[in-house]
Specification:
Length: about 270
């Protein structure tokens, strides 16, 4: 699964989904010159897709869409640790190794329990981060690096990546917008982030995310205690479980400590 061999139902060497037509994610096509807006959610990608995205200034374009925040999974091939940064070399078998930079505050003045521990080499991780370019080479600045303990997550990530690619490159036809599909029909350009939508959340999770998004103006984010004050009718465990879910899914990230969170939608 994690190799460079193209086959039925696999990835081609450009990181696109192999198909008879040969249309990979790395060959963006726009419909009628239509300008598409940058998605606000996190986009599941392969490393090859990230590296092959067209770079225009501070914008990265793939399939006519601007990539901003992405999530990738892969095997840690190298780790370099410094007081303020951890650098990873990540490989998912679809292309060259990509550099992932995670900025941390691991100074000696920071208590040991609050320091960010680096991931080990030869372990699988999921990365959430922003696309960047340095000296003509694209990389990812991570705001979250999580270990993968269930190998099914590798398969799930590939399926999410394929799903997003197909939604993006195969617009909804007029026939699909009629009949029993009508209520769910959405133009492809609006489903780029379909793998991570608010519709998949519970009511409590949606309420917690709405409150966290509402605190975007505060660099420190909002504390869990503050969230609980605004949702007094809900059990504390339900709120904390929702925060853990949202963090694990990459919708939010911790800021000054493990009690304060901001939305990843915030620029």
């Amino acid at each position: 699964m994690w190799n460079n061999q193209a086959g039925d139902g696999g990835f081609d060497q450009q990181g696109g989904f192999a198909s008879p037509a040969g249309g990979g994610f790395s060959s963006p096509q726009s419909q009628g010159g239509e300008k598409r807006a940058r998605p606000s959610n996190i986009i599941p990608c392969t490393i090859a897709q990230v590296l092959s995205a067209n770079h225009d200034g501070d914008r990265f374009i793939a399939d006519g869409f601007e990539l901003h925040q992405v999530t990738i999974v892969g095997l840690v091939k190298s780790v370099s640790v410094a007081p303020t940064r951890i650098d990873y070399g990540l490989d998912d078998g679809t292309g060259p190794i990509i550099e992932v930079k995670q900025f941390v505050d691991n100074d000696e003045s920071v208590p040991e329990e609050e320091r960010v521990s680096p991931m080990m080499e030869n372990t699988y991780v999921r990365v959430y981060g922003n696309l960047r370019s340095f000296q003509g080479k694209q990389n990812i600045t991570a705001f979250k690096v999580l270990p993968i303990t269930d190998m099914n997550e590798l398969t799930s990530h590939i399926l999410e990546t394929i799903k997003v690619h197909l939604e993006l490159t195969q617009p909804v036809s007029a026939n699909q917008t009629n009949g029993h599909h009508e209520t769910n029909a959405t133009p492809a350009k609006n489903t780029y982030a379909g793998a991570m939508t608010d519709n998949s959340m519970s009511n409590v999770q949606q309420q917690v995310l709405t409150i966290i998004r509402g605190s975007a103006s505060d660099e420190a984010g909002i504390s869990i205690q503050n969230i609980m004050q605004q949702l007094r009718g809900l059990p504390e465990k339900a709120i904390r479980d929702s925060v853990e879910f949202l963090s694990g899914e990459g919708h939010i990230f911790s800021t000054i400590d493990d009690d304060h969170y901001r939305s990843t939608d915030t620029d």
